[in-house]
Amino acid sequence: MNVIVFPASGNKPIRLQLNRRRRMVLAGIAAALVIGIGAAGFIVGSSFSVADRQALERLSDLAAVIETQRDELGEIQRRNQLDLNALALRLGDLQARSTRVEALGERLTQIGHLDDGEFDFGAPPPIGGPEEAASFADFGEVDLAAEILGFERRIDYQERQLSVLERLIADREIERNLRPAGWPINQGWLSSGFGQRTDPFTAEPSVHYGIDFSGPDSADVLAVAAGVVTWAGKRPGYGLTVDIDHGNDYVTRYAHNRKNLVSAGQRVQAGQNVALMGSTGRATSPHVHFEVWYQGRRINPTQLVRTMR
């Protein structure tokens, strides 16, 4: 077998005479080259396939991690929104509560005639300290919690004001109930005033230290204020008498009664029936001789009986 080889340099072709042995050697060399090239390609191809596979596996793991993080973030956002909703509901409840307290406080202030600015339930509580302005865009859970805290402070302030106002009104109500006011009868008329008059028995000038209220025999005699009965019995010239101590240096006396309905040491309320009208003692006809004592002295009760409770 002849093989002609053409050199790249352009020289004359070379003719090779291949016998059977040479052909077998060349075939073996060629086969070895083919196998070597294939093996190298397989090795290289196998190497890239493992790297790609590892990279894909890593990418898959990262994708799973990202998905897990996305789920966790969604859960956090959901819980955060629930917390914000709960805080918003709490804030709304506090706002409604504050509005009710404010309305009640203003009403009590008007009722108690204390609307001179001392009790201002609409004003924020007095607080202070340096602060920095915040944007509404930054409003979140922290800001909402701060708003709730502010309302809680406002409500606490309003409730303290309300408590003071309640005690003040209660004290004034107690004082008002203890201060003599109004007539000591339900039916009848004023028959004799306080001061100089002609004595009905002697026709001589005299001083009348009380006010007489005439009416039907056995008509109700009423306490003009709350207090404690300090006397229930006969007194010279007064007949059957009831004395009531109202505190604050006030004492009232109800005289000429047909019958006393209370006893010494008994507590009575304003408007309570303490006796029945009569003419015991130095009296010409059924009436109530009404006196007011202040700091141990009898005073003119005219202004007090004119006051309506």
Basic shape: rod-shaped
Mean pLDDT: 76
Secondary-structure element pattern, one letter each? EEHHEEEEEEEEEEEEH
Strand fraction band?
A: 15-25%
- Biggest β-sheet strands, sense, barrel: 10 strands, antiparallel
Low-confidence stretches: 134-139
Quickly give the structural class: alpha+beta
Rg for CA atoms: 55 Å
In total, the number of strands is 14
The helix content, as a percent range, equals 40-55%
Q: Give the helix tally.
A: 3
- Tell me the span between the first and last alpha carbons: 148 Å
How would you summarize this macromolecular structure in one to three sentences?
The protein has helices spanning 20-111, 141-178, 302-306; strands at residues 2-5, 14-17, 189-192, 195-198, 205-208, 211-214, 220-222, 227-235, 239-247, 250-260, 267-268, 273-277, 287-294, 297-299.
